[in-house]
Amino acid sequence: MVSQITRGIKISVLTTFEGTYFKNHKLHFAFSYEITIENHSKDSVQLTSRHWEILDSLNDLETVDGEGVIGKKPVLKPGESHTYNSGCLLASPFGAMRGWFNMVNFTSTRNFKVIVPSFRLSAPFALN
């Protein structure tokens, strides 16, 4: 697990290799990840959007931007947390993801970014 705190918001990530399969006559490596967002600040906040950079060992970079996470824009009061699961496909058995969540602080009405620490995606059979 990797974790990082930005402005009182803690992001923790767990990853799992899900297997391989063929899609469009090409081998893909499937990974899932679980992200927990914890509000350690004194203010209520809301996640409004996300930005991901997904890189595989073949140096293919995919950038993904979108509203909320898995169709939700969770509001977190002080001490609350939100956990969700998602996934991605890579063209190789190794890769990494990093990014950020755009959030709004309800007390100050200011927008801010919460960094998602870089996390590795690796298929166990490919490790030495």
Automatic annotation (TrEMBL):
Pfam families: DUF525 (PF04379). Residues 3-128 form the ApaG domain. One of its GO terms (biological process) is error-free translesion synthesis. InterPro entries: ApaG_domain (IPR007474), ApaG_sf (IPR036767). PANTHER family: F-BOX ONLY PROTEIN 3, POLYMERASE DELTA-INTERACTING PROTEIN 2. This is ApaG protein.
